[in-house]
């Protein structure tokens, strides 16, 4: 019965750096966050200038684009 | 509880409303203005159960574990290896005790939603998820400042990008890192528990409402109650999943605060 070893149970202390599993949630929060933040600021501008949703629309589009850019910057590399 | 069920069977308040989540006081000497409700009782039982279970399980640790010790070690090992170390890395070990406590606490609190006689999860009152989310929020901000000093503000808010885009990006970073995170943690847990309880109420009370309205609807009432049983199993999956998700996200935020620069 030579060579019988206790079952090895790696305790993962020396594991590699983790892949960032939360990045999916991060991506979604950037996308929605971008549109909500800049859409919201656009809405405030609308209230201020008395326009009807033009600034909000522009804000949401710009915010969405900025969100995509942030995802590429923060998560893409 | 049984008395109430019989009352319900005769005159069913259907559809259920948010009022059904505000339970009456259950202090034995009566009175309606006491704060001690079933929710309070379940909270205390949860805390007592967890403390006693882990104390008893680890009182005399053996090399060949007893059944109780094995269970406690499995839970701790699962959170330690599959959440703490997986998400945070080597440093995660020191957060494993907190994450295990968090996981067990949320799991047991959620579980009350499908335990007979209890049948409501304290987490379906948003106060509990809010406090848990606040703890996670304060923790990852504190850890960030501890690790990066005052530079954490720049680390968290300023992405690597040309200077002329930064005015657009910084508000988004602030919003998604410091406002959305605690909100989504709290609301995700609360809404799942609230909706789970509501679904069970709708199908149970709906069965009574139909059988009272017309005896011919009896088969559909029975179908509705069978659905309640099926939904209870679905609810169990949601309960375990939400406890896991809350813990994983907390670990993920901690990892984000501890990370070196991008």
Q: Can you offer a commentary on this structure?
A:
The complex is a heterodimer of chains A (77) and B (262). With 77 residues, chain A is an all-alpha fold. Chain A has a domain at 24-76. Chain A is built from 2 helices and no strands. The longest helix of chain A has 27 residues, at 23-49. Chain B has one domain (2-258). In chain B, helix 2 (38-57) crosses helix 3 and helix 7 packs antiparallel against helix 8 (218-258). The longest helix of chain B has 48 residues, at 166-213. The mean pLDDT of chain B is 88. Chain A binds chain B through residues 11-15, 17-18, 20-22, 25-26, 29-30, 32-34, 36-38, 41, 62-63, 66-67, 69-70, 73-74, 77, and chain B through 81, 85-90, 93, 159-161, 165, 168-169, 171-173, 175-176, 180-181, 184, 248-249, 252-253, 255-256, 262.
Mind sketching the topology for me?
The complex is a heterodimer of chains A (77) and B (262).
Chain A: H1 23-49, H2 54-76
Chain B: H1 2-10, H2 38-57, H3 67-88, H4 96-111, H5 127-148, H6 152-157, H7 166-213, H8 218-258
Helix pairs in contact in B: 2-3, 2-4, 3-4, 3-8, 4-8, 5-7, 5-8, 7-8
Overview in brief:
The complex is a heterodimer of chains A (77) and B (262). By secondary structure, chain A is an all-alpha fold.
Overview features:
heterodimer; A: 77 residues; mainly alpha; 2 helices; elongated; B: 262 residues; 8 helices
